[in-house]
Amino acid sequence: MGKKLYIPGPVEVSPDVYEAMAAPMIGHRMKEYAVLHREVTTGLKTMLNTQNPVFLSTSSAFGVMEGAVRNLVQKRCANFGNGAFSTKWHDVTRRCGLEADLFAADWGQPITPEMVDAALATGKYDAMTLVHNETSTGVLSPLEEIAGVMKKYPEVSFIVDTVSSMTAVPIDVDALGTDVCLAGVQKAFGLPPGLAVFAVSPKALEKAKTTPNRGYYFDFAEFAANDLKDNTPSTPCISLIYALAHQLRKFFAEGLENRYARHRQMAETTRSWILDQGFGLFAAEGYRSQTLTAGTNDGRTDLEKLKKLAGERGYAIDNGYGKIKNKTFRIPHMADMTLADLEELFTLLEELLPQVRG
Ligand SMILES: *Cc1c(COP(=O)(O)O)cnc(C)c1O
């Protein structure tokens, strides 16, 4: 039997999403696919408030994260790291054979506009990478303020991972001026993994065309040329795209503002519950994520055992990621989750916690 997922990705998928995925297969060069593609990319542009094209990549988020640096770093990249995913992006950039420097903040802290300004003022960089919502730590960096700084550096490609924030908080791509804004669908979109979406600015598309060694699978110029025909360079994960069309219809039916409010409310409820149980909050005040909350272990709770007991009851929970495993735990409140789902989890944990505390 499957467990109910209370982990911050992949997230629990609603039965109606699986039903949407079961639609009969079509060929991606058939007219039917173009109609589906157009519906999805139009919906994404509306949600992201952008005129930029939005592309669909059959890959996890890291495919586009790698693709973005391969397309847009010609000189040197500034990778801003305050957790596992953002720091990994630096490693990925280097592994692509590109020049790059890591600008690190402590885990639990945000990337600040001041940090970005100081790094870019050196004039050494023509691209930067930022993770909006660090899923490893539950920190939401101040994207609007950082975007304000980026206006001073139009020659620096502004590459943003919104993997665990897109759909849950407003992301106005055109106002922010991002060159690449990307997300994988197994987090806040509430879909099974295997698809990533990304909006690319016209400026970045022009630049990409002049970048050598950008490969084929993630070549932005290929995506742009195919998108003009409502298509993708290679065969896409059509079943997932059906499911994305379904989720987007649900988002608009709920209302984006209502959706954002639901996440805010779940975040507040989760923070209060964590504090009520005697744990702390890992993320710095004022920079706490709307889609997951990281609690700090009180030093007397066996999180490994808690995870095991919850698993026996049919629930998958998280006991921290990377170097803060077991020192922290993360509670997701994203995608299709509701307050009722959180209450179900809290009831279970309140029953189990006395058994795992020394
Ligand atoms: C999950 C996650 C990733 C990695 O996504 P994959 O789909 O596993 O490649 C990258 N960035 C953030 C912020 C994430 O939460």
| Number of strand elements | 14
| Mean pLDDT across every amino acid position | 98
Number of helices, counting only DSSP H or I runs of 4 residues or more: 13
* Fraction of helical residues: 40-55%
Percentage of residues in strands: 15-25%
CATH fold assignment of the largest domain:
Aspartate Aminotransferase, domain 2
**N→C terminal distance:** 31 Å
Superfamily (CATH H level) name of the largest domain: Type I PLP-dependent aspartate aminotransferase-like (Major domain)
Whole-angstrom Rg: 20 Å
Tally of discrete structural domains? 2
**Helix/strand-derived class?**
alpha/beta
- CATH architecture identity of the largest domain: 3-Layer(aba) Sandwich
Can you list the ligands bound to this structure?
A: pyridoxal-5'-phosphate
Give the overall shape: globular
What is the element layout, followed by pairings?
Layout: E1 4-6, H1 15-21, H2 31-47, E2 54-57, H3 61-72, E3 77-81, H4 84-95, E4 100-104, H5 113-120, E5 127-131, E6 133-134, E7 139-140, H6 143-150, E8 157-161, H7 173-176, E9 180-184, E10 196-200, H8 202-208, H9 220-227, H10 238-254, H11 256-276, E11 280-281, E12 292-296, H12 303-312, E13 315-317, E14 328-332, H13 339-356
Parallel strand pairs: 1-13, 3-4, 3-5, 5-8, 8-9
Antiparallel strand pairs: 2-10, 6-7, 9-10, 11-12, 12-14
The chain binds pyridoxal-5'-phosphate.
The site of pyridoxal-5'-phosphate (PLP) has 12 residues, from helix 3.
